[in-house]
Amino acid sequence: MKALVSIITPTFNSEKYISETIKSVQNQTHENWEMIIVDDGSSDNTRKIVADIANQDSRIQFYPQAQNVGPAKARNIGIDKAKGKYMTFLDADDIWFPHFIENSIRTISETNIHFVFSSYRRTNEDLEFVYSDFIVPKKVNYTDILKTNSISCLTAFIDIEVLGKKNMPEIFKRQDMGLWLKYLKEIPFAYGIQETQAIYRIRENSLSRNKSKLLKYQWQFYREVENLNLFQSIYYMTQWMYRGFIKYRN
To answer: Which of 64, 117, 160, 208 counts the highest number of beta carbons within 10 A?
Structure first.
């Protein structure tokens, strides 16, 4: 039997996109998966949409939270419940291409690298391809990620049977980056799949796109999560600002 893949999806007022996201999982050529959806206190129709779909597909597990706990906590609830050999993440407005899981597992098997990630296409909210594709580097190590986080949540794919489960730091922003760095402290590098495997929907008011608003969170991350000294923090902050401008200039 093919290996079980645990997919962790936090939702918050995602009624406009969640059906498409779930459908992209149901369309995977690798069919042995569990999709762990943790709703973070939605006030729109998200809960009913997810519950209705979950009632029709036993592979979907739904965990609505009574109140908003934040994306890091929501993802950690999913991580704690994951039972698969592999763990991956998919936000409630993003989409996988049908061979994403299959290609990720094959790459791990061929490279013997147990943490892989992929390139992806970038669209606006209406799935129009108005931005260039983001092509990831062939490999990244710990210091590479400190300079710029080229591992997106929607394509990170980790063999937790080999590398073990780790939780995201429960901070307001950069929690995914914090998780990747936990793994990269223990392995030489993560392997990047050059072929696009997913669609990342860029929302109009996305905080990740607005680097000026992210400055304080990035600085706090270097100083308080990774415990870098002042000079290291200044160096990596400068790198992050420059590379972020390049990443989102078109």
So the answer is: 117
